[in-house]
Amino acid sequence: MYKFHLLTVSIFSFSILFGQKSDSLPKVKATNFETVDILAYFNKLPLLGLTSSAQNISKELIETQGTTTLLPAINTVSGIRMEQRSPGSYRLAMRGSLIRSPFGIRNTKIYMDEFPLTDAGGNTYLNLIDPASLSSIHVIKGPDGSLYGANSGGVIRLQPKGFDVKENQASLLLNGGSFGLFQEQLSVQRKVNEQYSFSVDQSYTQSDGYRDQSALNKFTFQTAHKWKYSDKNELRVLALFSDLHYESPGGLTEFQFLEHPTMARPAAGPNPSAEEQDAGIYNETFYGGIAHDSKITKNLSHTISVFGSHTNFENPFITNYEFRKEQNLGLRTFFSYKDTVNTKIRWEMQLGFEGQKGWAAIDNFDNNGGVKGDAQAKDELDNTQGSYFYRAMTNLFDRWTIEGSIGLNHMKINYNSLYPIVANPEGTIDFGNILMPRVATSLLITKNFAFRGSISKGYSPPTIAEVRSSDQTINTELNPETGINYEIGLRWESSNRRFIADLGYYFYDMNNGIVRQLDEGGAEYFVNAGEMNQQGIEALVWTYLITPKDKGFIRELKFQTAFTYNHYRFGNYQVDENDYSNNKITAVPDNTWSNTLSFEFPHQIGINVSHYYMSAMPLNDANSVFSDEFNLVQLKATWKWELSKSLQLEFFAGIDNFLNEKYSLGNDINAYGDRYFNPAATRNYYGGVKVGF
Q: Where is the TonB-dependent receptor plug domain (predicted)?
């Protein structure tokens, strides 16, 4: 059968959009490169004045890098690594290791505008989001629990379409390619008047997958509305529904990976194969929120958001069939006061609270060939977390920014074991109160050169998935990760803003690092690893090699490179009789390197070339098994054809894994039976059309 595969729709003009400069600094003349502020710390802030390591991923970059997944776009940011085990199964490491995240996301806080997507239990279903429904992604790297609750890796803020509609637009995308991949996306944005705007985004994606037992079916529907019902009041509404199913092929041994990479995990010993058990994930989630902004006086404003979610989750696995019902309800509110003393001194402060309550019912049954069997375990867990926060910032002479913030965080878990009968079925795990301060500064040495530095405390309590993991035991001994992060950085921009460089160094000394282990049956459990010493260097360069022009064969050429160096080591770390002290921290490569070249030719023809390199990394705590390094190259060509002012066509085609690398993306960590590897797709092709109207 002829197979189609979609990787991406390419709206060419690649760009990473950084913070807009203040009026006293030079701006780019009219080009197709648009400057955008970075949304951080309650405001859109200029890059050179920002005290944290941050970056903005624009809508154009998201679409250029991929329409089926956020993975390629996020991996253009230094210090972040997103992986895919199979289509629809993603995990993300931000300023940290994937040792804690066999799947999903752990120590990073993710928001949709003012609504936390990370639930009360600490989990984030990022794979529910359709990339085409986002207008931008704002990334703040490093611990920031003083303002955003418990996290030790950083904060990602997803901005949905609909909250900042500039003009009416709509599009329909159809594409396909290798491995039976097909995608349809419909996106509509309307600015009804100056007071009301909205968006509706719907998508459907299916794929057979590269490996056996790796098919994907995903449907999403998202709508966002903004209503400015008076000069001083604004209401925003967000609703998302996602119905996701993907199969889980499971990990392979090194021999299987090299000789039979398309196979799913075979039967071994008493355990049947992944195909026999129909291993996979079913996730049906509704997520929604309402936010209200009010300008009380000239200087004082108030924001409040109420949000919640309901998830039906099923996971037929090799050894059991798990059902989860998860419900979450939360509130985030803060007051903001801003004032200008004179032309040389500005200051502001925020005071607020964020809290969530989660209810989770987790039932495990025998898995009889993909059919629920007898009960194995039934538990109920309620999670409560709250954070009070305060921040103060001052800007002196448009050159020096000083800020300090502090958060008081509290989290507890109530559990009740319903089946089987145990001695103490009910209890509470209380992680207590913890203060999370942050102090930071940014100083403009010259108009174009800035120095920044910060000290912050990181804190990441165990998630529900770690306290009650697949070994079906409630772990009351697991402690939160804590540590102090020290960071310095330099930024430089050319006067015409056509060259941007960002360099940062951090040292994060973590205590009680959480590490995943597997028992003989393949069920996971988690332990504290003692000390984890994390040092890193992150560098980014963005530049025009050829500035936009109206004549010539190459009308525009842009280049972006992002480099990450990690020196991550265990401190004192021992599991049973095994001493792993001073070993490299599991699942952390020494370095990653991302490069993107974007060409624009006459007649609106574009070519995008992307390169991603990852060095070898240890796959177990003993450092006895390593993954191989790999270079991943993607090529993409686009042609835009304007039929009329109201109808445009865009054709695209390309190649993924151009070098036909044999690599594993999304390795299993500390895998039992040496099943470490999840082979990624070989060279494949895609193509499609996008109709704008």
A: 50-154
